[in-house]
Amino acid sequence: MATFDVAVIGLGAMGSAALFNLAHQGRRVIGIEQFEPGHDKGSSHGESRIIRLSYFEHPSYVPLARRAMEKWRELEQLSGKTILTVTGVLEAGYPGCPVVEGSLEASRLHKLEHEVLGAADINRRFPAFSLPSQWTGLFQPEGGFLRPELAIQQFVAQAERHGAEVRTRTRVLAIEPFGAGIRVRTDAGTIEAGSVIVAAGAWIGDFAPELKPHLTLTRQVLGWFAPLQPAHYAPENCPVFILESEDDACYGFPDLAGTGVKTASHRKGAVLTRADELSQDGDTADEAQIRRMLALAMPGANGPLRAMRTCIYTRTPDEDFVIDRSPVDPRVVLASPCSGHGFKFASVIGEVLADLALGKTPANDISRFQIDRFRT
């Protein structure tokens, strides 16, 4: 029977980053993935993900975001691939909206570079936008986008270069603690490890009954639209954006490679009872929902539909992550139901997960993400 220091279940954003960090420390580590790294059945696909330092969700995320930036650049240096592109991030919405006010609070608290702008200033500076006159915004120049599929593939490739074993197309059937460690039963045999990181994304509830009652899976739809004025939506002219109206919120990206302007609603989508229910079934109602925000704030992007894709948000009740050792067995590390805003942190969370699996105290503060908060 194969034996390892750590087994990582799931090689999406968090699992691949954990595998990378453990392998770089010279640990005997195996990664198990039921599909292929960079697949389109979960939460980490679709060409791009936002990275930003100022964080409207809560200021305590900012130190993690700073460390994440450093770790993404480290992966770029090792791989020779461009994974992070800085375009700046624009957040805008109605007066007093949580997106702008929350990011402004985080920017001031952590002394981040930022600009507060009115709608007229934004529309003049970035012709991609035609915001309602009463809106305000915040521009953070250090933000931009990540390439998720490439990032995951490079984490895995770099881990393998440092001795990690990777098994794809392998389904985990059970995690079974025993005296000396953890047995992981798969459809291709059983392995043993001193500890296990469960980074199974929307499938994490299958292996963590203590967590499953607190999770909701939602179907989210991404759309790509041909811009009516292409030059305005080139990455050098249009920042990544988050927009909030009184009844919706969306996020999106400039036209990165001629694929169109990518936009998606950030509001809660249809609830899925199981992760396997997700299908690539974007329809006219999904398209109409996305177009409402484009028509309101970015009419020049509201051109012909190029493509739609679906993904899953694995949500906690408070929309924060779970990064913690299991209360059932501390040798099992639970890794991040991310509520739709986690990918940017994968590089640093991989570092945290490696520490937890090896019995160390992480250098990064993760007190906000403890599982016992659901008991109160």
Automatic annotation (TrEMBL):
UniProt keyword annotations, A-Z: FAD, Flavoprotein, Oxidoreductase
MF terms (GO), sorted A to Z: flavin adenine dinucleotide binding; sarcosine oxidase activity
SUPFAM superfamilies from the UniProt entry: FAD-linked reductases, C-terminal domain, FAD/NAD(P)-binding domain
Oxidoreductase in keyword set: yes
Database matches in Gene3D superfamilies: D-Amino Acid Oxidase, subunit A, domain 2, FAD/NAD(P)-binding domain
Domain FAD dependent oxidoreductase: 5-356
UniProt cofactor(s): FAD
Protein name: N-methyltryptophan oxidase
Organism of this sequence: Microvirga ossetica
